[in-house]
Fold these 2 entries.
Entry 1:
Amino acid sequence: SIGIHFSPKEVCIAQTKLRGDGTLEAEHLIKLPSGFHPKEGLLRPMSVNSDFFNEGAPWVNAFRTAIRKIGWDTSSAVVTLSPHFAILRYFVMPVVEKRFWSKSIPIESKKYIPVSFDEVVYDYTAYPLEGGKKLGVIFGLTQRKSVEFILNTLKASNLELAAVEINPSSAERLFASLDPKDHAAKGYIHFSGGSSFMLFSSGGYPVLYRETDYEAASTMSERKRLDVKGAIQFVDRYIGASAYKHLMLSGDALDLWKT
């Protein structure tokens, strides 16, 4: 499948193949500046969807041109949304019979996702915890109109939408594929420019995912250290942080972050 990632800053289109040594090779990689300038200074989840996923958005024509110019090997596309365009939450709830999940899990999710469900699409996965006494739930949603716009935009470019994911789910699949050995015992932090991306997962599902923007020239501060500590404390509440034996760092300026 073609991978398409939407964020407020850019739209990335990629097609990769897995080499024999387990590494990924990018056959095609296109990064399109979105040209999008949100009206609000602080981007709340899903607050800019209607402006970004819009026929008049600057990235739309550039996207269609890019799709036409490349000889893609497939017409299937998996779309990943940044946390600006969707919400993904992990929570633990009392166990209920599977036949009641379709009603009980959305109701429980509203404790953690305080938005109206009238104009959204959502999906979830649940699995037993504590010997079947509780359920671990990963629950994601985004605006229905955003998915419809993406579907129609891809269709106009002769692409078929195979799935819509949110960053944490895509990141977990990527790290699990590239670093399968003792994957369950590892937390991951990737640094890129002035941003960090932190991921702690359990059973193949992202329990905590956090994107943080820093000034590119900034030095390590106590607040940044507390971000990691706070993440571990959060994970410990749900699955026990003792499950993690290693913290894997990747990306830019790693010596700075190790100190």
Entry 2:
Amino acid sequence: TYQQVSWDPTQQKFIIRHRPAGDFTYDPQTSAWQRFTGGPFGGDVNTHGIFPYDPDVGLLTLVTASAGRGVYRLVGNTWQSYDYPPQEAWCTPQSVYIPELKLHLVQCLGWNPRWYKYDAINTRWTVLTGIPADAELDIDSFDYDSVNKMVIAVQHHAGVQKVWAFDPATNVWTTLPIPAIRPTRALRADASAPLLRYDPNNNVFIFLDPDVNTFAGSTGTWAYRYRRPSSGNPVLTVTADNKSRAYGAANPSFTA
């Protein structure tokens, strides 16, 4: 649950923070799991998250609970104290890494919701301002589109209801058109991992749409592509169930 899995390219393994069972590595080549100890648990499961891999500092985890609050860096299979976050109240952290800016975009959703740009090299936190009120509170999942250099964020309190694009170079948020064909079952991310993940090899977002109301039945898998237009409003392409539709702001209907 939450953002507790990250890929470590140096080990070629996944790092999993599993409260309260501990921390694990998972090798997809051998299907081998290995537990390692000494990790900062940080109390409840929703008070810690693992960042995407940062090529300059490696893997980081953020703990926001009062017990163990801090940023920790993975050295070998040991978490070492690295930095202290500005957020005093607990929050549920999610983040993406922006390689062109060498920054992490961090969402802290909780009693005092905040968004930060985090320069892990220089341990510098910058509060992000100018966020639309609905985006600040309502975003459940987001990831970075490395082709278009945009962060795409979605609200999925009861299926996908809102979509935003955020330009991390200019700090500009844009509300995107809502595709008529979209996931309808996924609930908010309070007790689930981020459901939106970007595939840079194919320039496409993958969104999982689980039946969380019954925890039974199938999980829908959706593909979602953002295309930056040469002018005018953004254009979205949504692919699902082997059907593709394109949506343009000037033409408020899907066309085959």
